[in-house]
Structure to design on (282 residues):
C-alpha cells in the first residue's frame, strides 16, 4: 500500500487558481452582478457626439426638402384607393351609369328608328271621312 | 365603335329593313242617276274589296252607313305601303248578305300605286239590280 501522497505546493496553487477563475466567471456572468451594473451604467462611447460621424453631410439643410411632397400624398392615396373594392370606386359607377344610359338610348333610338323605317305613325283619320282602313289603322 | 362603322351599320340596317312610306287613297262612294236613293236604301250590306298592289276585304256596313240615306254614301281612306303597280277598289252593295245573288250594285276604280302620298277617287254607282234587290214594298194592313 502506497503512502498517501502529500500535497505539493504546486497543486495547491493550481486549485486556488481554479477557484479564483470560477468565482470570477460567476461574478461576471450574473446579470445583477455589480460588475455588469457598472458596465451598463457606462455611457456608450458611440453616443458621445462626434461631429465627424454623426453629421450626415448628404442631408439637405433646407427643411422643405424633407417635408412630405404632394406626390407622396398622392401615392398614399393611390395605395389606399387600390385597397378599395371595385364597387366602391366612383369610376365603376360612372362607367356603369354610362353603359346603362347608352343601352337605354340605343334601345329607345333603335325602336324609334325601326318604327320610322317601317313607315312611322299613320296620319290621323280625317273626321270628315266615314272610316279609315289599311296598314297602321286601328280598323281591320 | 368608330363613327364610320356605326354609319355603315345604320346604312345596312336601312337597306335590310327597307323604308316604308304610307300612301293614302281617299275613296268616295256615291250613287248617280239612274240609281236612286230609294234603291240604294235597300242595301243592308256594303263591302269594299282591295286588289292589285294591296289586298283587303273590308266590311263597310257599319262604318259607311248601309243602308245609305243619300246619294253621297261616304268617303273612306285606305292606307298602304304599296308603291308600285295598280291598286283597285271595288265597292259591292248587297241586299241582305254577301251573296252574288243578292248583289245590288257594284263598281270599282283603279289607281296607280306610285310615290304619290295621297290620291283621291270616286266610285260612282250607276247601275242597280232590281232583280237581286227588289224595292221595298209597303203593304198595308188588310
Amino acid at each position: 500500500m502506497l503512502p498517501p501522497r502529500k500535497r505539493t505546493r504546486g497543486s495547491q496553487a493550481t486549485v486556488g487558481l481554479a477557484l479564483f477563475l470560477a468565482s470570477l466567471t460567476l461574478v461576471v456572468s450574473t446579470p445583477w452582478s455589480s460588475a455588469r451594473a457598472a458596465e451598463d451604467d457606462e455611457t456608450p462611447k458611440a453616443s458621445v457626439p462626434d461631429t465627424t460621424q454623426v453629421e450626415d453631410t448628404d442631408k439637405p439643410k433646407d427643411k422643405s426638402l424633407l417635408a412630405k411632397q404632394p406626390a407622396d400624398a398622392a401615392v398614399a392615396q393611390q395605395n389606399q384607393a387600390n385597397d378599395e373594392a371595385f364597387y366602391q370606386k366612383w369610376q365603376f359607377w360612372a362607367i356603369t351609369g354610362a353603359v346603362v344610359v347608352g343601352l337605354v338610348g340605343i334601345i329607345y333610338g333603335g325602336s324609334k328608328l325601326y318604327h320610322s323605317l317601317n313607315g312611322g305613325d299613320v296620319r290621323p283619320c280625317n273626321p270628315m271621312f266615314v272610316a279609315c282602313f289599311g296598314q297602321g289603322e286601328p280598323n281591320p | 365603335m368608330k363613327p364610320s362603322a356605326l354609319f355603315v351599320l345604320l346604312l345596312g340596317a336601312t337597306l335590310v329593313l327597307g323604308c316604308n312610306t304610307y300612301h293614302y287613297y281617299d275613296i268616295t262612294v256615291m250613287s248617280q242617276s239612274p240609281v236612286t236613293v230609294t234603291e240604294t236604301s235597300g242595301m243592308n250590306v256594303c263591302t269594299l274589296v282591295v286588289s292589285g298592289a294591296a289586298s283587303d276585304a273590308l266590311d263597310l256596313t257599319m262604318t259607311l252607313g248601309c243602308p245609305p240615306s243619300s246619294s253621297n254614301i261616304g268617303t273612306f281612306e285606305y292606307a298602304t305601303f304599296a308603291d308600285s303597280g295598280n291598286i283597285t277598289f271595288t265597292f259591292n252593295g248587297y241586299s241582305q248578305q254577301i251573296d252574288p245573288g243578292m248583289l245590288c250594285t257594284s263598281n270599282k276604280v283603279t289607281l296607280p300605286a306610285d310615290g304619290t302620298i295621297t290620291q283621291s277617287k270616286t266610285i260612282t254607282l250607276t247601275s242597280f239590280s232590281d232583280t237581286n234587290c227588289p224595292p221595298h214594298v209597303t203593304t198595308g194592313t188588310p
Notes: Helices of chain A lie at 9-29, 34-40, 51-54, 63-66, 70-82, 90-117. Chain A has a mean pLDDT of 74. The interface with chain B takes residues 113-114, 117-120, 122-123, 125-126, 128-137, 139-140 of chain A (CB under 8 Å).
